[in-house]
Specification:
mainly alpha, Arc Repressor Mutant, subunit A, DNA-binding
DNA sequence: ATCTTGACTTGCC
DNA sequence: CGGCAAGCCAAGA
């Protein structure tokens, strides 16, 4: 588990997310190599990884996670502190904050070049 | 080993 | 982004 390559990649990716930017579970799963591993990403997040900015990982609606440590309150506060505007319905503007690693970062993380997706127009 | 759950996503209505 | 079903993958009972 600890030596699981998928898990290792997930941690590396989340760590690479800049302050004030966001990624989604499905996105991370895809980058890490599992097309439908979104749930597993969530599981990994809950399982461990201290020092990992999990608050920058949200679901595909830009909504806050269901069981974030400290509850949605804590999640919301953590995001606001990074400059992310969180709506009253606990949702953020993904079109504005969603982040994708640049080519250099992908190479550093050991991600394949074919991991480009068209998430631009969703929502 | 099977069954249930879950910090998810997508498709269809 | 209203609701519901299916898909996928791993952990826990």
């Amino acid at each position: 588990m600890r030596s699981d390559p998928f898990r290792t990649r997930v941690l590396a990716i989340v760590r690479a997310v800049p302050r004030g930017r966001l990624v989604t579970y499905g996105q991370v799963a895809l980058l890490a190599g599992k097309r439908h591993g979104a749930r597993e990403v969530g599981w990994i997040a809950h399982a461990g990884g201290e020092g990992i900015p999990w608050q920058r990982v949200v679901n595909r609606f830009g909504g806050l996670a269901a069981g974030f440590t400290g509850g949605r309150e804590g999640h919301r506060m953590a995001l606001r502190r990074e400059g992310v505007r969180v709506g009253v319905d606990d949702r953020v503007d993904l079109g504005r904050y969603l982040w994708w690693p640049d080519a250099r970062t992908r190479r550093r993380l050991g991600l394949g070049p074919g991991t480009n997706v068209c998430w631009e127009g969703n929502l």
